[in-house]
Structure formats: structure tokens, C-alpha cells
Amino acid sequence: MAKFDADLDPLWQDLDWAIGQMLFMGWDGTEVTPQLRHLIVDHHIGSILLTAKNLKSAHQTAKLVQELQTIAHQAGHPQPLLIAVDQENGGVNSLFDEAYICQFPSSMGQAAAGSPELAYTIAKATATEVSACGVNLIIGPVLDVLTNARYQPLGVRATGDDPQEVSQYGIAAMNGYKAAGVATCGKHFPSYGNLDFLGSSLEMPIITQTLEELSLSALVPFRNAISTGYLDAMFVGGCGIANPSMNVNHACLSDQVVDDLLRNELGFTGVAISECLEMESLRNEIGVKAGTVMAVEAGCDLVLLCRAYDVQLEAISGLKLGVENELLTKDRIYTSLKRILRMKNSCTSWAKALNPPGISLLSKIHPEHLALSRKAYDGSITVMRDNEKLLPLNETMHMNEELLLLTPLVKPLPASSMTKSILEAKNAKFAPSNHEKWVHRDRGAIMSGEGVFRELGRSLARARHGKLLHTSYTANGVRPVHENLINRASCIIIVTADANRNLYQAGFTKHVAMMCSMLRASGQKKSLIVVAVSSPYDFAMDKSVGTYICTFDFTETAMLALVRVLFGEFQPHGSLPGTLRKSKKVVKSRQQWLVESYNRDRDGRGLDELLQVLARASAPSHQYLQTTTAAAFELFNLSIVESHFVVRNSSTHALYGFCATYFTKGIGVIGAIFVDPSKRNVSIGRSLHRRAIRSLTQRQGIKKVQLGMSFPGVYLGIPVDDSTTLKTWFASSGWDTQFPKRLTNMIINDLTTWQAPEGLLQSIQRASISFDLIHGLDNAESVLNHVATHATPEVYELYKHALQETKTCGVVRAKSPVDSLLGTVIICSPGSHLAAYVPPLCPTRRDELIGGILAPVVPSTAQANLVLQGLALMGVRQNKAHKSSRSVLSWVQDETYEPLLSMGFNVLQSFEEITNAPENFADAV
Predict the structure, then answer these.
(1) Which residues is 773 bridged to in the sheet?
(2) What is the pTM of this model?
(3) Which CATH class for the 590-739 domain?
(4) Origin, by domain of life (predicted)?
């Protein structure tokens, strides 16, 4: 019999209570039904999903959530309910209330604005709003990579087709949610970014990529988000997988996907949430009762059942039967329970759950969020082409000329006041495709989008003082009414919405473009503007469309921003996502920026702000930037010459880029080079790099140039998880990237439970290796001679600095039986001044004590691995003696990190240090 965990509340010994916490349920209606109350009170359901069907307004939502939590509290739930929503912005917002809840661009629209910092701010604002209504879990961010971007149903809900860009924006959004105190849930694992609909009667999409292909692209953002340690939950999709190594009908029911891939390979320790098990394909093939058991067997902790009460009861019965049939053990149930309770502890409490601030907070923050919304939409609007210089229209059209607007009949986005007004009528005039039905299920009714575009027409008419023609078009193509209006108008605006999946829109647009071309040839003025209001891929590569604008969603807010662009109220600066951005030739990329010397008094604060922007927007290898400050780059060491450079806005004092360089004993080093994420791809990095190389190669006695520095140890080289992109960049900047030196930072996360590997001490004793610890420079001659012989000059200076800091640092020596030095390592206790220069040593929480084991210098011999393990062992013992909770080992060279894995160290970060001869940069400067 499984032993009950003493850390859990005794109430959980009742298995019915524990099982109830593993079910995640929704319902139809805007009020608490008797059935829902029964689920919470009698079946102890611990998590509720709110959708657009449940939510009428912010006030109603706050009142509804408070009622749900009160029911749970009075029923004896030890912890509050998880209350979750989909609030992705763009077209997917479960909660809409134009008086209090702000609309922001879709994920792809935010990426088009080009600022992960803006994405962070939007996510924080969104989470703050829903949190005010009592929500404590957002089902987001979307981490899917649109591997085949043109034809995928997720569309603008995803950031784009570049895995690193998806990582960057996904992590920025996740950090924004967390900053507002809301739990996060990445989706849709393992990927909805390249689905095939193979014509099955059950309409189940299939992933056909191999695991190797997934690992190189689709899994990258999931891996990076997990590595941050801040992702609370993962939504596991219901799609199938068919490739040579895996044949899975439903990903969320497969232990290959959840336990093997998500948990064992990617290292996810949070809550795994299944796709809704009410989907038709699963109900018909397996049945909900068996499916629920299979989901938990596979490794899911929360099983989602969206709305049908009888199906929900079937799922509860299924879990109980699973235990009775010994398919599910009590240990398995309690493993999930502990994960769920840990997540609840991180995002809610009874004090918070029973008293959501509601309208009082929302009314206070609404003006600020409205300004943010306008800024975000203005930043996202992208003019990909304007070859004929048609924009702005108020400068290229006479007031008496007629403007024609042609719009498709589509369903409006759930996040709009138009949708709210139409929802009551249940207008389901236009049937959705299989793609749309599957990916937008339970997100709102399918209805005509005439209202949204009618308002766009009114806005255009107001801007033109009444001079506008407007009609819609359908799959019936160009009709006589269209031909007559095209003949009248001097400028035609065609709106498309996912023309790659709604092919009638592509055909209609090409037909109109041909008509305009023929009429222009006969001497008539017939300007054509195509506006893609959803996927930017509609006509991105079709050069026959000379003026092409992308808005990334068609909420009213997006359409108002479009009108302001069309009539010149602001200059749009949005850019296309992912590979589309890279395929576009950007003239600005040749721009030369003014590079200035870094001034601490003038630039220190700007550098701190730049570092925080980078930390929030970066992949896991850069997360330590959140503990890095401007002071980390200034060594004030008489043996090291420092020259740091900035690109800045002299008016606002904002730093757009920073580069740190050092020179000692004939070696010039670039220790860091940063560019504001919103200012990338415009040559700021190249301008900084050029100035840095020129400065270093002009130093007298320069012998070698190095990329990456151990002291300060912010960047030891190129981060390995970014190595492909960055290596290409540095290679094009004059560096030889073929033979890098790998440097790895490692960590033991919990020293309280760590024990030395069995047999290690005996091996060290048999080899007659002895160790001692020294402090101060008086006894350090042999150590410094050893380091000078076997390490780089900056490592030598690091040792000198550590030996001078006698209270918190020392050096452990490994010696042979004849007292010759076999190796050395620096030991730091928590609070060492060295932590300012080695960010992994800086705690992210006040109660965190991190010990350091720095710069092991072990020459290559037959005993080298054993010497390194011995030095690490001595370091860990010293860290434990100083009450450290974690131990960071920075850095280990090349493959020597592998013997440390067996000691309980994990890889924290890996870098590739690169060196080059100065003469190789003659062309670069």
C-alpha cells in the first residue's frame, strides 16, 4: 500500500478529494448551475475553465469567480480553485469588456511591432486585468512554431516560423504573466504548428514530422520556456503523431509524448494539462471514461472536460475505476496532486481568491492600458510594400475621387464588441472549415463578420468626409456590382483574411488586380491596396500587389490603427515575422550608427534598463541577465585596460546597444555585445562590433582577439543554444568560428540532499591526491604560476582578485604525492564580491544562498578528470559548510564537464569561446 505523504493535508487521504483536484472543467452559461455546484461541492473539482460562453463583462466575471471560490471555500477545499481563461489577445480573448478590458494585438502582431519588451508589458497588462476579475491561470503563451506557416490554422495566434523568435516572445509573455501574479501554461505541446488534415471523418489533425525535425524547430520554444523554470503548466494537444519512431492517435494520451518527451527529455516538472477529452474523435474511438485514465497514465495531471455534465461525471467515474482496477496507483494520483497544489500555491490564496479587486482596480488602470493598446497596434501595422507610393491616401487622392472598400464575409473575432452584439442572434451563416472548427473549438460562435468591416467603412468615410464606396465579396467572385464600383473608383482597397485557406479571396483579389492593371493601361487612375487583416502570408510574396499592408487581426482597435496609417496620422514601422522579415531586403541594415565611449554617470542607468529588457525577452541561456548590472562590466583592474562603447539616443538617453572590451597581456577581448531587441536588424550590433575591433586591434602588442570572457563572466562566449544564428553573424563579421572552445557553467540545485558519488573519495585516496585551501596573496605564488602557465590572462586576474578577497574567497589546490600542483579552483561563499562579475552566483531571491566554484585550472594528464572531480568535491563541501543552498561551477572547458554530471551537477549554460588573429579583421574595420 502506498504511504501517504506527510507534507499533504490529511484531507487528501480521501482519494475522492485527490481525484477531484485532477479534473479541469467548464460549463455553458453565465451563472453557476446546480450541476457545477455539485461538481465543486460533492466531487471536489479543483479547476475551472472560463470561456466566452461564461463571461459577459468584467463586473459579471469578478462576481462569478468570487461565487465559485466561495462555494469551494464553504465546501472545505483546502486551497482555492484554479480559474483559467484563454486570453491571448488578437482573436482569442475569452473576456471582453470594452469599458474595462483592453484589446491588444495577436502574438504575431506583437512580434511585428519588434519589441519583446512591449510583449512583456502587454502580457503583464493582460494578466493584471484578468487577475482583477479573479482569474489565476492564463492558458498561454502560445509556443507553437509555424513550421509551414502559410497553411496552418493557428495563424496569427502564433508568433511566427522562427523558433528563436517564438522563444523570445513566448518567454517575454510568460514573464509578463508571472509579474502580474498569474500562473502560465505553454501550448500546444508538442506542436500545432505543422498539422496535416488528412481527410479523416473524425477530423483529427496529424503531426508527420520526425522527432529529429521537431527537436530542431517545433520543440525549441518549449525547451527554452521549460529551462527558465518559470513555466507552471503545459497544455498537451490532442493531435495525432505519425512518423517512423512514433505512432500516436492522441498526444495527450500517450506516455511517449507526456512522460518520455515532455518530462524525461525536456525536463518539465510542472503540471501537464490534457486537451479537452470531449473531442469527437476521442469519444468515438476510446470513450471518455477510458480516455481519462489513459491521460493520467500518460503523465497528465489535469484532465480537461469543457462543458458536458454527463461526460464530466463519466470522467470522474473513469478515474475512480482506474484506481479500483489498479491501472492508476495512489502514488500516481498523489504525484499529480502535489504538482497541482504547488502551482496553486504560486498563484493564489484564499485571501486573494475571495476578494478580487474587480472594477475598482480595472477603472484605475484602464487609461494607461488604453494608451498601451494604441501604442501596440500602431507599432504592429506593417506596410510590406508601397511600390507606387500610394500612402498616405490624403496626399495621393483628390477629395472628389472615390475610394472603394471590398471586404470578405468572414466570422468576426471573439474579442470584439461586434461579436458580443451578434452572439445573441446565433448567426451561423458561414460554415467554418475543418481547420477552423478544430483549432477554434469552444472559442465562440461562427458568424458573419459584416459588422466589423462595416465599422471600418464608416471610419474610412469619416476620414474622407463621406467619399467612400463599400461592398463585400464572396466565393461567387467578381460580380457586375463589383465591376461597376471598380470603374467608378480611383483607388480600391481589398481586405483579405487568411486567403491561403479561403482561396476565393486570393482569386477575387488577383481578378481585381488584373482589372486595375488593364484600366491603368487605358489611361485611367486605378490604384490598388491589399490589406491582409489576419495572416500576413496572403500576398507577402506576390509582387503583382504593389501596395500591401498587414494588420495581424481585425478587431476594431486594429482597424482604427489601419485607418490612421492609410491617412498618414503616423508612420508605420511594423515588420513581418520570422523568415519573412529576413527575406525582405531592409535598406536600413546598411545604416551606420554613432558609437560613443561608455560613460558611467551618463549611461549606467540606461545599461541597467537595457539588461532588464534583454532578461525579460531572452531565451534560457540569457536568463542570468536579470541579476546582471552595469557594474559587472567595470573591473577597475590596473592590469586590464577597459574600453566600453554604446549606441544611444542622445535625446531620450536610452541605450540601443552596448559593447564591453578588455585588453591584457597581448589579448584583446570582447566580453559582451548587447542590442535592444526592438532595435535589431538595423546594424547597431555591426556598428558596435566594428568600433570594438578597431579599438582592440590598434592596441600596442596585440597578439590575439578573443570573443567571450571569464572575468567578468557574463558571456563566456557565444551561447550554445543560439550558436547557429550568432555564429553566422560573427563569421560574417570576420571571426573564424570553426574551432571554438566550449565553456560550461554547471549547478547543483539542492545541496541539502546532495551526496558525494560512491567510490569517488576512495579513487582520490588511491591516486594519493591531496587538497588544501589557501587565502590571500602571501601563500599564492605557486597557484599564480600554475594559472599563468595553463590559463588565459583574464583567468589569472580572476585568481588574483579572489585571493585578495580573503573573507569570502579562497583557492583549493590539488597536489601530487611529491607536492607538485595538479590543479586549482576558486571557492566563493555566498555574498562574495565576485558575484557582481559572475551573474550565475547572484541570487534571484533574498532567501537564496549560492556558493561558487570558479575557474578550475587542470592541465591535461591521465588523472585530469579525477583531479577535476576532486576539486569540485572540495568546492561543494566548502559551499555546504557556508550554508549554501545551491552550488554553481563556472566554468568547465570542452568535454570535461561530462565527469561532473555523474557527481550530480547539471548543465546551466554552455558557451563557445572563439579566438582569432588581429590581421583577420583588416576588412571588418
Answers:
(1) 812
(2) 0.73
(3) alpha beta
(4) Eukaryota
CB 857 within 8 A of CB 791: yes
CATH of domain 743-911: 3.40.630.30
Residue 410 has pLDDT above 50, yes or no: yes
Q: Cβ contacts of residue 712 below 8 Å, gap of 6+?
A: 632, 633, 635, 660, 671, 837, 838
DSSP string, 296-315: HHHT-SBEEE-S-HHHHHHH
Helices 450-463 and 556-566: angle between axes, nearest 10 degrees: 30
User: 69: which residues sit within 8 A by CB, 6+ positions away?
Assistant: 80, 81, 83, 134, 350, 353, 354
The residue type found at 236 is V
SS3 assignment for 17-58:
HHHHHCEEECCCCCCCCHHHHHHHHHCCCCEEEECCCCCCCH
> Parallel, antiparallel, or unpaired: how do β-strands 240-243 and 641-648 relate?
unpaired
Distance CA 617, CA 708 (A): 21
Q: Which among 699, 698, 688, 707 has a CA at the least distance from the CA of 644? A: 688
Architecture field, domain 25-362: Alpha-Beta Barrel (3.20)
In the beta sheet, which residues pair with residue 235?
A: 273
Residue 701, classed as helix, strand or coil, is coil
What secondary structure letter does DSSP report for 261?
I
Q: Give 595-651 pLDDT, tens digit per residue.
A: 999 999 999 999 999 998 888 776 655 667 888 999 999 999 999 999 999 999 888
CATH H-level superfamily of 381-410+449-577: Glycoside hydrolase family 3 C-terminal domain (3.40.50.1700)
Could you tell me the sign of the dihedral formed by the alpha carbons of 789, 790, 796, 800, in that order?
A: negative
pLDDT tens digits, 265-277: 999 999 999 999 9
